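Suppose a colleague, Dr. K., hands you the sequence of a protein chain of 174 amino acids and asks what its three-dimensional shape might be. Before reaching for any lab equipment, you can write down a predicted structure in token form. Begin with the sequence itself:
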Amino acid sequence: NGFDPVAMLTDWDVGTTEILSDGRTLRTFQVDAEDKEIEIAPGVFFPAWTFNGRVPGPALRAKEGDRIRVVFRNLGSHPHSMHFHGIHSARMDGVNGTPGMIGPGEEFTYEFDAKPFGCHLYHCHALPLKRHMAKGMYGAFVVDVRPARRLALPGHSVRGQRGCLSAAIGQPLL
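The predicted structure, expressed as tokens, is then:
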């Protein structure tokens, strides 16, 4: 994305989709941890740890109620994980000693339902936490309100409302 913050805000990764037998959408994301030297200003480089080769990591976007599958591969040189704040089960928390902590060359699949709606943070949960985040291992996970729920929110007009960040940047709901 170079240095264009507007491009970064509108560069959604919506994954690939398929319909499950219960009628819900399965939304699959491929995320790779990798060591990469990134240009942070013209001619200034930083040895980052990245999600999909970028800092911040990709902005993942789904609809409330979607089944989320994140196939996470660690192509980097340190143990890494993905921790979705308050969303996935504790057994996939990505802290040392849990199945979500992935060594170099390993892969793990996180699976959970996209709820609650809103703007959420994900980051690497390996220790030391602040080092992994300072090296670039964080990103946004946006869950749009499902259309039926938007209409049912008491006291709220839905005319012109498009979900988290979307109203400001003109991006439609999924």
